[in-house]
Amino acid sequence: MTTGLARRQTPEELELVKKKAELSAMESELSQRELELATLQAELHVFERRYLRIVGVRYAELDDLEAQIAERLARQRPKDDETRQQAAAARAKADESAQATGGVKDEKPATDFTPSEDLKKLYRETALRIHPDLTTDEKERARRNQIMAEANRAYEEGNEAKLRAILDEWESSPDTVKGEGTAAELVRVIRKIHQVQHRLAEIGDQIAQLKASELSQLKSKVEEAAKEGRDLLREMADCLDSELADAKKQLSKSPVDPS
User: Fold this and answer.
1) Is the whole-model pTM more than 0.85?
2) Does the structure show a pLDDT above 50 at 127?
3) To the nearest 10°, the Cα dihedral for 251, 99, 103, 70?
4) Which residues have CB under 8 Å from 107's CB, separation 6+?
5) Most buried of 93, 124, 127, 164, CB within 10 angstroms?
6) What secondary structure letter does DSSP report for 54?
7) What's the burial of 225, exposed, middle or buried (CB within 10 Å: 0-12/13-18/19+)?
């Protein structure tokens, strides 16, 4: 019978254990923050489509009417450079509005983005496994970026089956099995920690920028109005309908173009 003392861990091994625990906690935080960002982006996307369908199309129609009025006036004053420039600017604005709202008028009304708890949990798990900042290899990072983009689309669409399939395919991939020595693994873990820290800072900036955007601020106003029983987008649409009626009258009363 032989006895012996357990091998004492080297300083590198002890540091690796410490850094792995630190990385694990940061990875959990990262997956949660990625979920928050993806959810905010999806909510704003749905709201933007709703805004364009109710309000944006009216702005586009009004811009087109105002461009027609300006163009008619320019034709009546062919030698007036300022009038021609105003007409050209009005038409450019109308074209831009039309492009922004193209096809949205015929869309079905979008429902609010309300992901289930199961979908959010699945997304967090996917981000925890696949996130690009969890690798130090640039080729692998590019591959993960592509897969996460697919995961983000599936999440925004509320497609739990697709998201599950992405995660299952990743988990069964032979590329996820790697063997590493202590020294190399310690360097990789330290670099991963740095990458995760960088990504967390990026997410914080992105979320702050999204929340400070005009679209997000309008969404907040719409939600506050809804608490008071008001439909702010409908109120905006009603005001625009009045302006549209005035613009149509002005266009119909404009002098006929000289022949």
Assistant:
1) no
2) yes
3) 0
4) 49, 53
5) 127
6) I
7) middle
